[in-house]
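About this split. The held-out portion is used to measure sequence recovery: a designer receives only the structure tokens and must propose an amino acid at every position. Recovery is the fraction of positions where the proposal matches the reference. Here is one held-out target exactly as it appears in the evaluation file.
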């Protein structure tokens, strides 16, 4: 069943959204992008004459009630975005009365799902090394299924529109789907677009296909890099210091992982065998301390002095990447090429954003995902100049790595 094929008139519909929005110290929303992203799905339910129940997590309360992570703080924002007065259920696991009172065209937001440990389904207060852990895990799995059943009992239909949590088998993202038949569960519009965008890049890419994989840790991206070697023509990004050191270069204090140097060499050998071009940075903008106002100097990436640290892509690296990106027909970008949170070392990431937008203008298909990559295209006003901006960095990475996304599989099979 697809959302477009369904009429929700007179029905109650529970939608898993991702309203894990940033709040300031006063509990005020500082960025409502995720709320706006869910609006097409939510308005479809209301416009059909359905009764809308929204559920989400916020932060990591670890199964305990935490007022600072209460979704009550965003009711006003959701109401303004939806154009209806959103009601609030202060306990997501005991919302029967609020659900029963809900009328067609009305909307209800449930309290933070993660106030219940059953949402994530992890045993609480017991270490994995404890002999009793397996029994505790089995018990929690049963409790998770019961919690999901309770959430399912509130509605006639279930829609998952939270791509940011699609890689987690949580009660509200996957387990709940077991309580709905195939005609009463579906992906929301946002999820459909996310899945289509990834499938487009991974299975229908026009060539040359270039992937820019940033971030300082190779370990967090290794599976992605390996899977991409069978799909891309060019691979580059900001995770190169481990590679450079493995090749015998001097990288000073730059972030790297010694234990992954053999794996880095294996990746480079595999790339050569598969005719994939790896574009490591050739020079870095370096600093002497991890702060914005530290002295800056450009060094060849394999000749960084012992007391300096690589913190951004240098001009020569950017020139190479510009040529590669502008010559591409498909572009995948995940992760910064410098310390994006420090303005003086965010130049390289900003330039990459501009190159990706320019390539898109020339006809390339571009998929951007991951916190700092998304922040970069937003900061420079380029979000509407790339083909698609993914809302879920972790989920996108796991999909690219070739892993199953439980939130999608639970509905599509």
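Reference sequence for scoring:
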């Amino acid at each position: 069943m697809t959302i477009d094929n369904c009429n929700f008139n007179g029905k109650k519909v529970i939608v898993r959204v991702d309203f894990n929005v940033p709040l300031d110290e006063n509990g005020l929303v500082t960025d409502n992008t995720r709320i706006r992203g869910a609006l097409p799905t939510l308005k479809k339910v209301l416009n059909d004459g359905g009764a809308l129940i929204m559920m989400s997590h916020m932060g990591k309360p670890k199964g305990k009630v935490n007022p600072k992570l209460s979704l009550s703080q965003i009711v006003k924002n959701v109401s303004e975005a939806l154009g209806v007065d959103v009601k609030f259920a202060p306990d997501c696991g005991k919302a029967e009365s609020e659900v029963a009172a809900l009328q067609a065209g009305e909307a209800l937001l449930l309290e933070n799902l993660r106030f219940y440990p059953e949402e994530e389904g992890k045993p609480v207060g017991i270490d994995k090394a404890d002999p009793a852990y397996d029994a505790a895990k089995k018990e929690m799995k049963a409790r998770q299924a019961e919690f999901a059943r309770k959430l399912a009992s509130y509605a006639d239909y279930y829609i998952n529109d939270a791509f940011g949590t699609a890689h987690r088998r949580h009660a509200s993202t996957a387990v709940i789907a077991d309580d709905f038949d195939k005609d009463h569960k579906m992906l929301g519009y946002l999820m459909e677009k996310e899945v289509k965008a990834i499938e487009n890049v991974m299975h229908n890419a026009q060539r040359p296909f270039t992937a820019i994989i940033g971030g300082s840790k190779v370990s967090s991206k290794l599976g992605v890099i390996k899977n991409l070697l069978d799909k891309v023509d060019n691979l580059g990004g900001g995770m190169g210091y481990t590679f450079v050191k493995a090749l015998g270069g001097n990288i000073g204090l730059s972030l790297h992982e010694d234990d992954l140097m053999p794996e880095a060499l294996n990746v480079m050998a595999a790339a050569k065998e598969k005719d994939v071009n790896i574009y490591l940075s050739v020079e870095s903008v370096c600093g002497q301390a991890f702060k914005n106002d530290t002295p800056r100097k450009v060094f060849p990436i394999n000749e960084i002095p012992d007391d300096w640290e690589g913190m951004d892509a240098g001009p020569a690296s950017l020139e190479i990447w510009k040529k590669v990106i502008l010559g591409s027909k498909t572009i995948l970008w995940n992760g910064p090429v410098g310390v994006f949170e420090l303005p003086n070392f965010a130049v390289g990431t900003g330039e990459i954003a501009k190159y990706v937008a320019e390539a898109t203008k020339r006809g390339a298909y571009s998929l951007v995902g991951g916190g700092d990559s998304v922040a970069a295209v937003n900061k420079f006003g380029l979000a509407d100049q790339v083909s698609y901006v993914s809302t879920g960095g972790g989920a996108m990475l796991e999909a690219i790595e070739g892993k199953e996304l439980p939130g999608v599989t639970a509905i599509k099979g």
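Annotator remark: The mean pLDDT is 94.
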